[in-house]
Amino acid sequence: MAIRVQAEPFDPGAEVNAMHAANVGVGAVVSFVGYVRDFNDGLEVSGMFLEHYPGMTEKALGKIATEAEQRWPLLKLEVLHRIGALEPGEPIVFVAAASAHRQAAFDACAFVMDYLKTRAPFWKKENTADGPRWVEGRDSDHAAAGRWKQ
Fold first, then answer.
1. Which of 38, 113, 110 has its CA nearest to residue 81?
2. Which segments within the chain are labelled E, that is strand?
3. Beta bridge partners of 18
């Protein structure tokens, strides 16, 4: 398992390639890349600033990843999230799960993203034409995470 929270940009393609480079037992890698949009709720967004609580954020992401590893037979799991100033079009989050078979990788990747959106302590401030505003959690994110309750 790899958990990274960083200000530096990343290359999603390189991250996917690294997921299976050293393990020929990997039969499937499923990844999700989230990008900063140039709009939200009908408003133009010129940029975003992400804050987190160092140590606490990594611990929360680690708990989510550990739960995924307990639920599915994964060979590798990576969660990478950017912080700091970001521009529209930049990758903000990368989640990838590697497994011998595709379904475990699909399910684990979706699970991690759903829980990341609702349990990871990140605070997002968007820069809009109306001025800066904090981004609130969405009910749809909580509904998506609810499907994984055991």
1. 113
2. 2-6, 28-35, 39-40, 43-52, 74-82, 84-86, 91-99, 122-128, 131-134
3. none
For 64-123, the pLDDT digits (tens) are 999 999 999 999 999 999 999 999 999 999 999 999 999 999 999 999 999 999 999 999
Hey, what are 5's tokens? 């929270």
Question: Using CA atoms, how far apart are residues 14 and 7, in angstroms rounded to an integer?
Answer: 17
**pTM, rounded to two decimals:** 0.94
Inter-residue contact 78 to 14 (CB < 8 Å): no
* Top CATH class, 2-135: alpha beta
Q: Strand 74-82 relative to strand 91-99: parallel, antiparallel, unpaired?
A: antiparallel
SS3 call for 18: helix
